[in-house]
Specification:
Helix content is 36%, strand content 16%. The chain has 349 residues and is an alpha/beta fold. The strands form three sheets. The protein has an eight-stranded parallel barrel with strand order 3-4-7-8-9-10-12-13, surrounded by six helices. A three-stranded antiparallel β-sheet has the order 5-6-11.
Length: 349
């Protein structure tokens, strides 16, 4: 991390978390941030669900909810980017405050509630996206929708022509009863509608799941996703668990992300890899090259991060990609794909 980035992060942390995040988005829109583009080597270049990635380090949904800074993020080292979640209609989300930094835990709690500009505004920005780079959209449902399952297909239908992949997000804990859609029958019906819509679009569709699923629920989700012929599963979203936290805001309601989620989400990832042949993307607590490598050894074909950027800045992306390349070379792998799942059984325990 450069001295300029250190000063910038220190300054941002003097603001409340949501204001600081808004300022970081504005800075990226003004052209600040990375300059070099994705880090890539023959060892890091990989493919997942037909998407050719320069490296397997992606940006998780939630950072750029409204697809406002795609060009700047594309220059920041990521192998792929996911924006959103987008809902059919704009919605303000939950009342503020709704974002909390847990500095002592290197973690974040949010209860945003799918605040976003809606699929029309987001779709307009995606239509103007840079030609290069892999960009996906996280699909959401409006809080007051009478047909939440139908909302996902509606957003896909509107934005599908301008994205490279889409993610069905039924795992956010901040929209009441949304996680109920992870139940076997409800999920099967939802995915049937999404995949029917995608028949005319033809992009990879992923499913993002909760780290709080029990083993039987995880097996059900894997079965439904496999039967639906999804492109893959993203494991995992934020957790409601609060075990071991030290920060003052630890009891705030919402989804917890960052370092405390790493072990739990990695264990879910490894167990999920034992239930399905679908490609997996590992998310949850990735803040170093070593942690990214652990996700891959647990069964991930690629990883995503977000919360670590709050504490380490955008330079972390390149550091993780370069560090991952070094670790793979140390262990004798010619390509990251060779390391996928090599420690799955141990990490599933």
């Amino acid at each position: 991390m450069s001295i300029v980035e250190k000063i910038g992060l220190h300054a941002l942390h003097r603001f409340d978390p949501e204001t600081a995040h808004g300022l970081s988005i504005k800075a990226l829109k003004l052209g600040l941030g990375g300059r070099g583009g994705p880090v890539s080597t023959p060892r890091l270049a990989t493919s997942i669900a037909g998407l050719n990635l320069p490296n397997p380090v992606g940006l998780a949904a939630g950072f750029d909810k409204n697809a406002q800074c795609l060009a700047a993020l594309g220059r920041s080292g990521f192998g792929f980017i996911e924006v959103g979640a987008a809902t059919p209609r704009p919605q303000p989300g939950n009342p503020k405050p709704r974002l909390f930094r847990l500095d002592r835990d290197a973690a974040v709690i949010n209860r945003f509630g799918f605040n976003n500009d809606g699929m029309h505004a987001i779709g307009n920005r995606l239509a103007l996206r840079p030609e290069r780079g892999i960009v996906g959209l996280n699909l959401g449902a409006n809080k007051d929708s009478e047909d939440r399952a139908g909302d996902f297909a509606q957003v896909l239908r509107h934005c599908g022509a301008d994205i490279d992949f889409a993610t069905v997000n039924v795992s956010s804990p901040n929209t009441e009863r949304l996680r109920d859609l992870q139940g076997k029958q409800a999920l099967a019906a939802l995915l049937e509608g999404v995949m029917a819509t995608n028949a005319d679009i033809g992009i990879p569709i992923f499913l993002k799941i909760s780290p709080d699923l029990k083993d039987a629920e995880l097996a059900d989700v894997a079965e439904v996703a496999t039967d639906a012929q999804l492109a893959g599963i993203i494991a995992t979203n934020t957790t409601l668990d609060r075990d071991g936290l030290k920060s003052a805001d630890a009891s705030e309601a919402g989804g917890l992300s960052g370092q405390p989620v790493f072990e739990k989400s990695t264990r879910v990832l490894a167990r999920l890899a034992g239930h399905t042949p679908l490609p997996l993307i590992g998310v949850g607590g990735v803040g170093s090259a070593e942690q990214a490598y652990t996700k891959i050894k647990a069964g991930a074909c690629a990883i995503q991060l977000y919360s670590a950027l709050v504490y380490s800045g955008l330079s972390l992306v390149g550091d993780i990609a370069q560090g991952l390349d070094t670790l793979l070379a140390r262990d004798g792998f010619a390509n990251v794909s060779e390391a996928i799942g090599i420690e799955r059984e141990a990490l599933a325990r």
